[in-house]
Specification:
about 170 residues, mainly alpha, 6 helices, about 0% strand, globular
Length: about 170
């Protein structure tokens, strides 16, 4: 017999979808007057990694794929490339969640920084290999630094606004 998902999983997934699409909506708003300054952080990526490392039981891989694929369509990026890289990165983070659970936040932050760097490097290498348009390296480095710097802010806001807390040892499956 098929077991229905529990309430925590369904509510956590719905809250994540709402938060991710609210971030995408804010990203699509025309807030600038034509001047394109420094690139901002990828808050969606930071939210995905924060959720996977805080509540891996609430965020499944198909939900991550759906969110990133919709973001790629809306932002007119190469379809599927960043989705595959984010899926691989989030699953790598999910596999390390149990080891990082009892570590200080700085260890998690450094690990996430390295993971985001590897994801962006892999994306850039794939763009070069498939002869896709490649953004300027300086812009990519600035976005990387902004995303890594925004990760603690995303953790704080997710805890304060949504109530996203780290999974306890007894709750882990």
């Amino acid at each position: 017999m098929i077991q229905l998902p529990n309430r925590s999983f369904v509510l956590g997934t719905l809250v994540f979808l709402f938060a991710a699409w609210a971030l995408l909506f804010l990203r699509l708003l025309p807030l600038s007057q034509g001047f394109m300054g420094w690139p901002g952080p990828d808050m969606g990526l930071a939210l995905i990694l924060a959720w996977v490392l805080r509540r891996p039981d609430q965020l499944s891989a198909p939900v991550v794929v759906l969110v990133v694929l919709v973001e790629e369509v809306m932002l007119m990026r190469p379809l599927g490339l960043w989705t595959a890289i984010v899926l691989i990165g989030s699953e790598a983070a999910r596999s390390r969640e149990a080891r990082w659970r009892d570590q200080p936040f700085m260890v998690e932050w450094i690990g996430v920084g390295v993971l985001i760097g590897l994801m962006m490097l892999g994306y850039r290498i794939a763009q070069v290999l498939f002869m896709l348009p490649v953004p300027a390296l300086g812009q990519v480095i600035l976005q990387y630094l902004a995303t890594v710097a925004a990760y603690p802010v995303v953790i704080f806001l997710a805890r304060w606004l949504i109530g996203l807390r780290r999974i306890r040892r007894g709750e882990a499956t």
